[in-house]
Design a protein that fits this description.
Layout: H1 17-36, H2 42-48, H3 53-68, E1 73-77, H4 82-90, E2 116-122, E3 128-129, H5 134-142, E4 150-152, E5 164-167, H6 173-182
Antiparallel strand pairs: 1-2, 2-3, 2-5, 4-5
Helix pairs in contact: 1-3, 3-5
Bound molecules: zinc ion.
Zinc ion (ZN) binds near residues 116 and 118.
């Protein structure tokens, strides 16, 4: 909430009146953005609501364009807590069943800061496709030329991640984490 500009006090961990107001304002902003686009499938909606307001806006604009272009996409992952990220990291490691799905521990993934989402592509019959041309089509349909305020993992060179999208903050994960934890992350320009 703080990164979206709804909360300006020190982060003291108490749920006080200013926190209450910030939470109400945040929910109102989320509903307003939804009303400006449309209501998507339940899974996409649930994932979108885990994002920062700035990312909610971009994710909704993106998904609407993809669907209008005839590609069946859903947002299947949004924000993960550090604990959820740690649980994901343990898959396929330390004797746990695999496969390994991430190299990031808690605090090491863009998904830990409210700025990233993953999509899934589905067939008309509802089958999930974990790869295929639909992922490239979705990026072409959903993002403006150059990406606008959104960065696509399909354009990454070291680790190509075609289901992945995030706000184009221009920050490394460690810079993002530092600002997120210090309460100095400002997403309002995005
Ligand atoms: Zn991702």
């Amino acid at each position: 909430m703080r990164a979206d500009g709804f909360y300006h006090d020190d982060l003291d961990g108490d749920w006080g009146p200013n926190t209450e107001k910030a939470a109400r304002d945040y929910d109102a902003a989320a509903q307003q953005i939804r009303s400006q686009t449309r209501t998507f499938d339940a899974r996409s909606e649930g994932c979108i609501l885990t994002l920062s307001i700035a990312a909610q806006r971009r994710a909704r604009e993106f998904l609407a364009k993809v669907l209008d272009g005839g590609v069946i996409a859903r947002i299947i992952s949004g924000t993960r807590t550090y604990a959820e990220q740690d649980a994901l990291f343990r898959k396929g490691r330390f004797g746990n069943p695999g496969p390994r799905v991430t190299n990031a521990r808690g605090g090491q993934s863009n998904h830990n800061f409210g700025v990233a989402w993953d999509i899934g592509i589905f067939t008309t019959a509802g089958g999930y496709l974990d790869d295929g041309p639909g992922y490239d089509k979705a990026a072409a349909l959903g993002l403006p030329a150059g990406g606008g305020n959104v960065e696509w993992g399909g354009n990454w060179t070291t680790f190509v991640d075609r289901p992945h999208y995030q706000l184009a903050l221009g920050l490394s994960v460690s810079q993002l984490r530092q600002r997120f934890e210090a309460g100095t992350l400002d997403l309002t320009p995005f």
